[in-house]
Amino acid sequence: MGIFTSVIILILVLVIIAFMQLTPGTFALFYHYTLGKYSAKKTDDLSLSFILGAEAFSATMILITYFVIFTILVSQPLFIQNIFSWIMAGIFLGEAFAVFFCYFRKGKSTALFISRRIAHGTKSCISHVKSHRDAFILGATSSVAELIFTIPLYIIFTTELMKFSTNIRVIVATLFILATILPLFLIRGFYRAGNNLAEIQRLRVHLKPLVRIVISLGFIFLSLAIINCGIFYYG
Amino acid sequence: MDDTTLKSLTRSLKRHAHAIGLPEGAAETFIEKSLADVTKKLQNKTIITEEDLTRAIVKELKKYNPDFAYVYQNRDKII
After folding, report:
1. What is the chain A residue with the closest CA to B70?
2. Which of A64, A151, A167, A231 has the lowest CB atom count within 10 Å?
3. Hey, where are the domains in chain A?
4. CA closest to A142 among chain B residues
5. What is the ipTM of this complex?
């Protein structure tokens, strides 16, 4: 499989990760609630801690999946790698359908698949954020519930990453982390430009069908790429 | 509606109003007016669910600021 195909797959993974909605939704709510309690300057500072937390989580997940693949999967016989490929292809296909039908709840909102108890718990945590530490932890844990969709993305990303030299790996991993936090900087930019949660939320609801289609199609393409390009064959 | 509920609702609405960027004085005035109207409308109901309360508050807030009403109505539907 050529470098060009690897680059396409990496770009696709970056796009899908950037379109995921749990962390941006949590961040939008966090910024709104913090703005209601504190000054604009303090809210801005706390938002940077949130973003740093999200970055730290993303980096940790890349390292963990890299370690798991490097120590366990690479040394497996070819037939195990073959089985793993088919399982991953099936997972991506299943997730494509799951995202299209179940990622967002019904109705004119951006309420996600996560249980309402977890959503209320997150909202409660958001309203009690007081320090940079709280904001960092909130940012780091905001995407845990979405791991069911993002773990396969991390696996395929780190697998493709291993095909590049060490220097390129660092650059690509940095780009990946930037892709996960780009939506947060966009939302922060919206707030700083004078918009409020109502305007941001109306935009998110308007873009909901696009998000659903992009993520589903992305997963379908990745599933086909796994089958056709032998992504999980480590030699 | 008892005093504790009214106080906590007022505090929550003030925070939302501050986050939206509404001037403090104006926000306080229409929050008080909205809650007074809501209390009057719901006083004959024996059971008031959270949905009833939210619906009534949103209906009143829409008269003053649609963004404020939208945020309050959708506060549990962001994530």
Report:
1. A198
2. A167
3. 3-229
4. B79
5. 0.93
